[in-house]
Amino acid sequence: MDLSYHSRNAATANRLRERVKREGRTFNGLKVWSEEEDNKLRAHYPDYSAIASALPHRTYDACRARAREIGIVIRRPPFTARELSVIRRLYPSEERSEVLAALPGRDWVSVAKLASRHGIHRKPKPFKPTGVLVLDQIKERCRELNYSMSELDKMVRGKGYFRKASWCWGYLNDRDIGRAVRALFGDIKADWK
Fold it and tell me: Mean pLDDT across the stretch 160-187?
């Protein structure tokens, strides 16, 4: 390739930059950011609702991208292998405060996102007892087999009895309860007194 080829391309790029600056719009019709808009962004950052009211013609994503571009976003260093091992050990079972105490300078949202990316999940919360023994046993068995209430409804071909927690309104659907017991490999027994 010839040196004139590169200089011609550089000259074309300069002409196009000058044209965008002169017209105030990019080639796809978007308005170029002005210094006044940048100052408003700096003044209201990180409150994006205030930014949206100050810059109504800019989208949320455009404001975020511009904040990164002009360098007002606080950049956090990536997680280290040590921090990942701490998350693997503490995240599933410990309280939030203990996890964050072991990871200084990190917030809960970033820790939760990293854990999700690596397939680390918190232990599920225990079911609230319903007061009906058979329903409590069904819910515990679903927890053991790792079924959700929606999946249980599909298994019993119900219309949302378990997913909607219809027993909360005093309605006990014997048909769905019986089918759920059979689907979860159980037997119904009478306890006579």
Answer: 87
